[in-house]
Amino acid sequence: MKAIRIALAELWGLFVEDATLTIGTLICIALAAFVIPRLGAPAPWRAPIFFCAVVLMLLENVYRGARRR
């Protein structure tokens, strides 16, 4: 049973190394799907806004990771 738990933990780690990065990505997706259209952003601007949100989230994650080391 212990081996199965270790294997599942390793599998989880492959997909979700940093929980804040995962949560941030999910928040960006939710914003792009629900909030940005309701703000009245024109359709051609929705993808660039989503891209900028993801880039800012990734830069924050890299900055925080660099400060830890």
Describe the structure.
The protein is an all-alpha fold. The chain has one domain (17-68). Helices cover 87% and strands 0% of the residues. The protein has helices at residues 2-15, 19-38, 43-68. It is elongated and about 50 Å long. The model has no long low-confidence stretch (mean pLDDT 88).
Brief description of this entry?
With 69 residues, this protein is mostly helical. Helix content is 87%, strand content 0%.
Features:
69 residues; mainly alpha; elongated
Structural class: mainly alpha
Percent of sequence in beta strands: under 5%
The percent of residues in helical segments reads over 70%
Number of separate strands: 0
What value does the average pLDDT take?
88
Query: What are the low-pLDDT stretches, counting only 5+ consecutive residues below 50?
Result: none
Task: Describe the SSE topology.
Layout: H1 2-15, H2 19-38, H3 43-68
Helix pairs in contact: 2-3
